[in-house]
Every structure is written in structure tokens, then in C-alpha cells.
Design goal:
Elements (H helix, E strand, L loop, with lengths): L1 H21 L4 H11 L9 E4 L9 E6 L4 E6 L6 E4 L1
Antiparallel strand pairs: 1-2, 2-3, 3-4
Length: 86
């Protein structure tokens, strides 16, 4: 019983460490990673701002400015992001 509890506690603490490490990323870095994962170029992201007017419940829209491009990114849960140059 103690062994299982120790293992469970270790797993829970491990997730807490991972969560803390990823919490330090900025929206700019996260959105740039999404853009690159879908094959678009986004070197040296400069800024990312949320487009509140274009966003909908459950669908956040961000405008990201990279060193070499600008994109409008619609983030839809459980689907690929919709990325458009602007």
C-alpha cells in the first residue's frame, strides 16, 4: 500500500514540475510553436496579441508578428489551427 502511494505521489509531483516549466512560456512562444508545427516559417517571434473582436467562445484568434512573416492564427480546440498571413 505504501509503495503504491509513493508511486502515485511521485507521478503527481512529476506533473506539477512539468506544468511549472511550461507556465514560463509566453503566448508569443506558444503561438509561434503552433505556427511552425503546421509548416509555416516563424523565426524570432516579435509579438503576439489577441484579436478580441475576431475571437469567439472556444476559438481564440491571435495575431503574431515574426521576424520574417505575420500571421492571424485561429486556435480551435481538438483541431488544427487556422493560419492566414496578414
Amino acid at each position: 500500500m505504501t509503495r503504491n502511494f509513493s508511486r502515485t505521489l511521485f507521478v503527481l509531483l512529476s506533473f506539477g514540475v512539468v506544468e511549472t516549466a511550461t507556465a514560463q512560456e509566453t503566448p508569443r512562444d506558444i503561438i509561434a510553436a503552433h505556427v511552425r508545427l503546421q509548416g509555416y516559417k516563424c523565426d524570432a517571434p516579435q509579438s503576439a496579441t489577441r484579436d478580441v473582436k475576431a475571437s469567439r467562445p472556444g476559438e481564440a484568434v491571435w495575431k503574431i508578428i515574426c521576424e520574417d512573416a505575420r500571421y492571424k492564427v485561429r486556435m480551435i480546440p481538438n483541431m488544427a489551427d487556422v493560419i492566414e498571413p496578414f
